[in-house]
Amino acid sequence: MSRDAAGAQGERWGLVAVAGICSFLAMFDMSVVTVAVPGIASDFAVPVSVAQWAVLGYQLPVVALLLPAGRWLDRAPLRPVVLGALAGFGLCGAAAATAPVPAVLLAARLLQGACGAVLFVLMPLLAVRAVRPELRGRAMSVPATLGPLGAVTGPALGGVLLDHWGWRAVLLVKLPLCAVAWWLARRGLAPGGRPTAPGRAECRDAALAGTAVGALLLGLTTLPEGWAGPVLCAVALVPGLVWARSAGGRRVREALRATRTGGAHGAVLGLAAAFAAVHFLLAVQLQRAAGVSASTTGLTLLAFPAAMAVAGPVGGRLADRYGARPVAVSGAALVAVGFGLLATAGAWPPLQVGWRLAVAGLGMGLYGGPVQLMVLDAAGPERRATAGSTVQLARSAGFTLGPAAATALGGLGGPRTGPALATAAALLATLLLARRPVRDEAAPAHHSPAPPP
User: Fold this and answer.
1) What gap in Å lies between CA 143 and CA 74, rounded to an integer?
2) Residue 194: how many CB atoms within 10 A of its CB?
3) What's the pTM value of the predicted model, to 2 decimals?
């Protein structure tokens, strides 16, 4: 990425706030629209399988464009991309909320997903560049905490909006945050050059990834309906394998080998899937099996993000003082403890579930910022956007695959099968993070040279 000035000398915590808002918005939008699907289907008189593409239409470009966006942003100036992505995200949200027909809604959501992919990649870049190296752990903890908070608060807030103002309000609720982030970014980022258009390689990678993800999502949504679902899932492998053998796939593999961050990416994928699976299973289990009301279930599940919000800043400070890797390992181990306590619980009253979730949430808060800092520091300034895109892809894939895996495996051993598998995933993530340092990230960050102004 071009080394355009990012604002005045010294700390720019306003840009850290922009990174946090970008992370929150991108993850919030992946979950909040889910609750609006029945209302969209009813309003437009279409099947739920069609209305569901209001969600999938956003998720598809987010996942498909992360890697091409990272390669493009490695050479693009920061300011115009940030402002353009935020403006596009907000405008597409407004267009989706006022869509007169389903086709307009889907088109707006696809474009919003493309902007969301850029926001995912921008988030760690803004946080790292906004502060001195010795404060990067604290800065990175802000978006690393706010992203998962957006994912889990989306359905709760969306339900309230849906009950009072309908599904269009669910799509409009993000606009004030977009405006605040745009204003902060405009003030905090120095003018830069005009970004060049994505090259042929990025477009080819986007087409292959989009085809693979689109076929996979369509296959998963039609899986219960007959043979078409498995066939589409199998078809998705073809463009995926073509991409893996292309120059873009080789570059990603080479980057992972050169920085030795394959284990960190696996840990991110596993913990994201575990988090999403447990959250999904508990929401169903508490209401159906334990007879808990929807409001009590929502309050119980909030124990996880509340604990995460408390531990996130602490994890950043500890990473600045002791290094990113030991803090990330400790956090992942604490997540395993929390999920393990949940898997061995003798009963499922809300209080018993809540404090166990809080233990796991504390661990996730400690782990989130330091693990991203590990990957970005290992990549170096020249490949930070690519590294940011790969780690965000791992996290997004985990959030997407976790509930699907929980649904498929949840009936194979009772309600504790999901938490038990999540515990195993968290333990594996702990081992992956502890196995070997990524370059020299175990040393405190203030030993790194200061970035250019």
Assistant:
1) 20
2) 8
3) 0.70
Contact present, 329 and 359 (Cβ < 8 Å): no
CA 223 to chain centre: 25
Amino acid 197: pLDDT: 67
Q: Check: CB of residue 69 under 8 Å from CB of residue 118.
A: yes
* 257/176 Cα distance (integer angstroms): 41
Clarify whether residues 219 and 262 are in a common domain. Answer: no
Q: Indicate the length of the chain as a whole number.
A: 453
In angstroms, the CA 218 to CA 228 distance is 9
Per-residue tokens: 329:
């390992």
Confirm if 217 and 60 have CB atoms less than 8 A apart.
yes
Helix (H, G, I), strand (E, B) or coil at 394: helix
Pairwise CA distance, residues 354 & 71, whole Å: 41
CB 8 within 8 A of CB 168: no
Neighbour count for residue 42 (Cβ, 10 Å): 12
State pLDDT tens for residues 71-86: 777 777 788 888 989 9
The pair of three-digit structure tokens given for residue 249, joined into one six-digit string: 């796939």
pLDDT, tens only, 24-47: 888 788 777 777 777 888 888 888
> Is the same domain home to 274 and 319?
yes
- 167 located within any domain: yes
